[in-house]
Amino acid sequence: MPLPKIPSKPATILLAKDYPQAEPGRSPVRATAKAENDPVEDLISGPAVESAKSGRNRKSKAALLAEAPARDAAPQAAPAGVAAAVTAPAPAAARAETRTDQAAPQLRGAEARDQREPHPAKHKPVEVGVKSTASRKADRAGEAKVFVLDTNVLMHDPSSLFRFEEHDVYLPMMTLEELDNHKKGMSEVARNARQVSRTLDALIANTDDDAIEAGLPLSKLGNKDAKGRLYFQTRLNAAALPEGLPSGKADNQILGVVRALEADRSGRTIVLVSKDINMRIKARALGLAAEDYFNDHVLEDTDMLHSGIVQLPDDFWARHGKDMESWQEIKGGNSATYYRVTGPLVPSLLLNQFVFYEPKNGEAPFYGQIKQITGKTAVLQTLRDYSHNKNNVWGVTARNREQNFALNLLMNPEVDFVTLLGQAGTGKTLLALAAGLAQVLETKVYNEIIVTRVTVPVGEDIGFLPGTEEEKMSPWMGAFDDNLEVLMKSDGDAGDWGRAATQDLIRSRIKIKSLNFMRGRTFVNKFLIIDEAQNLTPKQMKTLVTRAGPGTKILCLGNIAQIDTPYLTEGSSGLTYVVDRFKGWAHSGHVTLARGERSRLADHASEVL
After folding, report:
1. N or C: which end of the chain has fewer CB within 10 A?
2. Cβ within 8 Å of residue 405, ≥6 positions away
3. For residues 172 and 146, what is the distance between their CA atoms, to the nearest angstrom?
4. Domain around 147
5. What is the CA radius of gyration of the chain?
């Protein structure tokens, strides 16, 4: 079963059957990639592409997608004479293939059900990273390729020169010219351009002209993973482009260099690497191999993103409860029960991951958290029920299973880093603010709440804003103001003066800061909330998370389906980056909120509009 993705409809709840099933000795994240029989992948690497390219079978991708499950579901009958040979012991590869085929009917049934009734967690085929045909052929043959880098790749990742392993890198002269044009200024693009120029200068230092022609070893600066060579364009390449393409445009000149390289180095596979979609489209239209830069993608498929929640199988207690130990501990006035279990599913679990078991026979469900893993032995801790009014957090109670998991992370002082994913209306901001106010004003674990977010406009920018830093940031914090109004509804008996005093007290403990002034700061005993974190790059996210001093808790909230920053995708977002890198750490946790709780109007609108 694929891992639950953030649903496209905020009102849709992920049922128990939609959560990843733990399997013996296998991580649920990696099992997805191995077990799922994706017809899109068959389209990418199967006979459909070859036949379509040769002209024998020109069908649309939708037709091929529809035919892929049908082809798999109708295996050809084996001849009668082969039956005796089948009884012999099969090799390991054949046995693995047999197991896959046995599991295939269930997967194909899910695919057929998805075709009839689209599930909100279904993965979009357009998100699959596809290599060019020439690149795949070179990979199968084990040949080293020559990657021609576009300027935007170097400005996006200054270290991209050393990310191509054993393959060679070629830099056209126009790429160096564009780097020179973008080196001025204080933006991140300008800093990256200057960094690339300094790296190229270090590579070319103390080198003869003949050595430049033969290629410079990329491992010269200590990057041992880069085993290829760096080539510069040292002569004018006369490559005829199709009529109508202006020769003065930089992109067209780079395309001419790629075409000339193919003619000059006929024995090598030449691949253009560019972050510009239109550049790749033009290259493919001209018959040139072109690819996106994949190294910045944390995950090729966002369906494999760590969800933080795993459903235990029905036979979990029967297989893992033979030598089970249980005890109770009281920490911070709260009593919790611990279970030490041993079994084959334990290695596939992660620290601070939430597990749940909801039996169908009417028995009480079990909700727990992984607190310790040693080999095949794990310690499970029962959760505090924040759905009950006696355990409310600043008047807020959990309305569903995922919100209860999130509040257990937010209210745990041992967890320093929390990430919450979810669509609009799932309660990310409300839960974060309620937990912050409770721990700042009631338990006094933290001194104050600091709120920040990326100032990326959705539409046209309205220009400069007047006032101080906090006044300039206030228009971007409308979501927090709306949630504060809900949280500041105190007892009506307090009167207007009492409500005004409460609001002033709460406002005095909440500071709104801009990301532009975060570098060099250190936050001590703060409750830091980073909203709209999906618009941050991995470098910006690293800058923010490393601001944490002693006693500081950082929350990252966001929805990777709504990215406003150019050049960022679901796979390369800073939020995806930290979710993947922090999984399994004892002082971090992650939950994907799945159900919208805003209002019945918002839930219905998200379904029908």
Report:
1. C
2. 308, 309, 354, 367, 383, 591
3. 12
4. 133-298
5. 28
For residue 211 the two structure tokens come to: 């050595």
Total domains in the chain come to 3
3-state secondary structure 56-125: CCCCCHHHHHHHHHHHHHCCCCCCHHHHHHHCCCCCHHHHHHHHHHHHHHHHHHHHHHHHHCCCCCCCCH
Kindly state whether residues 293 and 312 are assigned to the same domain. no
Which one-letter DSSP state was computed for residue 323?
T
Instruction: Return the CATH number at 159.
Output: 3.40.50.1010
Dist CA 306 CA 220 (whole Å): 37
Q: Which of the two residues, 36 and 202, has the higher pLDDT score?
A: 202
Residue pair 268/288 in contact (Cβ under 8 Å)? The answer is no
Final residue of a structural domain among 231, 263, 298: 298
User: Nearest Cα to 548, choosing from 417, 430, 383?
Assistant: 417
Could you say which of 335, 352, 382 is where a domain stops?
A: 382
- Measured CA to CA, the distance from residue 482 to residue 473 in angstroms comes to 15
Structure tokens of 371?
A: 């607190």
Judgement on whether residues 424 and 573 belong to the same structural domain of the protein? yes
Please report, rounded to a whole number, the percentage of residues in the chain having pLDDT higher than 90: 27
The CATH code of the domain that includes 526 is 3.40.50.300
> Which pLDDT score, from 0 to 100, does residue 474 have?
67
For 468-487, the DSSP string reads: SHHHHHGGGGHHHHHHHHHH
Tens digit of each residue's pLDDT (9 = 90 or more) over 495-517: 677 667 777 777 788 888 877 77
